[in-house]
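Quick one:
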Amino acid sequence: MNYDGIFIKVVIIGFIGVVCFVASLLVLELVVERQDRFAEAKQEIAEKWGKEQFVAGPLIIIKKTTAEGISNNSYVLPQNLRYEIELIPEIRSRGIFKSVVYVSKLKASGSFAQQDVFSSVASNQNEVVFSLPITDTKGIENQFDLTWNGVKYPFQGGAGMIFQESSGLNAVVPVGRAQETIPFSFEIEFKGSEGISVAPVGKETVIAMFSSWPSPKFIGSYLPSEREISESGFSAEWKISSLGRPYPQTWEEGAVSPQQLIDSGAGVEFHEPVDGYDMTFRSVRYAILFIIITFATFFLFDVLLKIRIHPIQYLLIGSALSLFYVLLLSLSEQIGFLFAYITATTMIALMITLYSSFVLKSKKRAIPIFSLLVILYSYLYFVLRIEDYALLFGSLLLFIFLSVLMYTTRHIDWFALGKKEQIG
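Output:
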């Protein structure tokens, strides 16, 4: 018996499927290119508005110089520190790209131990500087003051000796021996983008943050001790002891690096729950499943109902399936991922269904095609939303499809079918 006819048909359909899958993969390059443009737009917004902020203080810098003229400063951290930070989010745009920025209203209070400060002071000539390193001070629009031991001192620009290459604020302050602790407080308002973190420099540090942004992502070395997230926003509080910190309460020049302070930070990012680029990227992974399932359905019509479907028709249907991802990517930039997905699904499902009514020579036969596509795209959206279980549900889809295919073709005599193809 000669089975070349049906075998060649399957090979041609398989080759067309591979071509269409490769065409779908080309969308990945578009996704990467659009992500790069989006990143550039976000960076441009951040450069003009304010970068992602990190507050690495406050700390006391006691300026010292050796007899040889070498800087040998001492650094002292607060005994206790409390931050209250309100983050007011805004959306800024560059063309079609949007980025989350914020205005931060920061209140800080705490105290330094007088013993820690004076044990580091070598003489009355040592200058004592209250230093507050901040990533990007161009987001500060007004003048703010430090209240030090009940007296106000204006902040100056610059973070101090250890952060010479970084921005920040500082104030020269006096110290006295009249009390065991030196209280301080200050309020500042500054702009930033994407997120904010704070170094837990106090021997005991409490960081309280709250915002109207409904989807925060907590970042850094510590998770909040308490948090509450709702559609109206979030609130979080960190309680951090110096026992879990990688640097001491006081140190001399060079003993602690700025990076150690940065690595110990805790904070939050304004997470966007649906990223159209990531979702499109992930959806392309399932392109081969969609092509196989759709082509197999048409092949069953071909075999069971003797409706001859030309390879060119398979190619056009596969091209429509590949076009879905381009539509999804372009529309998601304009109307958001959910509405883009619904729109792209409707357009592709209707186009293939209408074409199928001519290919299958019946409008009734095209209805199962429409139902299949709607089920597949609905299932894909469900899988995309539950990323942790994507592999499980993807394998279940394959199992269900293979089971249906085996059940549908259980009575087909493939040997006899090969004969008929040869006779025909």
